[in-house]
Amino acid sequence: MTEQEKDLLIQLLTKFTSLTPEERANDKSLMKAKADVEKTIGADLMDAKIDDADDGFPTVLTIQQMAQFLQIGVTKAYEMSHWLGFPAVHIGRQVRVPKKALLEWLEQKHQEQSDEVQLQVMGRKRR
């Protein structure tokens, strides 16, 4: 566990538990407290709150933040939010995109394109 991960975990756990200074210094105590909190609030919520990425973006992105994150225009980002299979959550007129789901979606698209290119290359070799 890196120091940054440890600091983030301590910040989160102190909201839900009362850790002594000795427990904060002990990795085993931290992991036990984390497990206790996960049982209470759920592991999914726990994972969503701990975002130690040093990219300056929150775990849930607005369309403007997503556009900035992907380095694309806001119009294109909004259009993407309506694509079938895109991991956008529409809340009334607002759109939010979980960063983790966006990264997974990008990885999936990258893999699909890589597979497609390989098939094209193999098809050319057979001729």
From TrEMBL:
<feature type="domain" description="Helix-turn-helix">
    <location>
        <begin position="60"/>
        <end position="109"/>
    </location>
</feature>
<dbReference type="GO" id="GO:0003677">
    <property type="term" value="F:DNA binding"/>
</dbReference>
<dbReference type="InterPro" id="IPR010093">
    <property type="entry name" value="SinI_DNA-bd"/>
</dbReference>
<dbReference type="Pfam" id="PF12728">
    <property type="entry name" value="HTH_17"/>
</dbReference>
<dbReference type="InterPro" id="IPR041657">
    <property type="entry name" value="HTH_17"/>
</dbReference>
<protein>
    <submittedName>
        <fullName>DNA binding domain protein, excisionase family</fullName>
    </submittedName>
</protein>
